[in-house]
Amino acid sequence: MSRTKYAILVAPAAVLIAACSTAPAATTTPPPSTSPAAPVAAMSAASAPAAPSSSALATGALSGTWHGQYGGAYSGTFTLHWQQNTSSLSGTIELSSLGGTVPIHGTVQGSSIHFGTVGSTHITYSGSVSGSSMSGNYQVQAGNGPQNGTWSASRA
Description:
alpha+beta; disordered N terminus
């Protein structure tokens, strides 16, 4: 009688331990009708990292010329000439209000883009990229406090 109770107590503990284990069970064998390659392929596909949802991270995806406009506290047009290296952006921006071209730097991660500091004026742009267009908000640090607005651009 004590032997039956012992078997009942051990069996649930073994199931509990097996269910909590993170290591693959090396001692189990697949059923005869299952190919050994099938579970391995399924496990590899399930454990593979997901591909990025945006092509913006692809090296050079944002490189080139972009034309845009901005509105709000300040308004006008701009032209960006980007060089992209992985998630880093560098290039020049020509703002209609400045009348010249100045260097600009930024980053892109997934569909999120951030760039700023135009010449000696501290301007930051943030937004999102989708295919051949991007848009978002800008902020200018001015003597009378931050000035805000929106911007959008498309590939030339």
